[in-house]
Amino acid sequence: MHRERKKSCIGREGNHALQEKEVMHCKRRKPCIAREEVMHCKKSHTSREKDSCIARERVMDYKKKTHASQRKIHASRERKSCIAEENFMHRGKEVMHAEEKFMYRRKGIYALQEKIHASREKEIMHWKRRKSCIARERSHAL
User: Nearest Cα to 131, choosing from 117, 120, 139?
Assistant: First the structure.
């Protein structure tokens, strides 16, 4: 019995030693695992930073392209607006020219009408004088 006890004690001590080894191994391993996890987190954080940096660059490129296209559109609209303004001014000049022509013709018509009126007045005055002369001659003849 004593041997059996001894064996069981030795067995227990061996088990205890094994357990202590495992505990020590786990204790040594835990910081390694923790370090690995930290490194993994750092790596994933770094990769996330790279990803976000790349995404930021893509967004900036997109914004630059959008801004450039907006500037082109704005310049095109300005050019079209300037052309439309020039066309409008040209049409305005054409209208002014047409009005001037109309006024010139109208002045010519007025001048002609005045000449006609003046000649009619001359004729009327001439006939009035002639009538008065005829009337005088008749009155003298009687």
Answer: 139
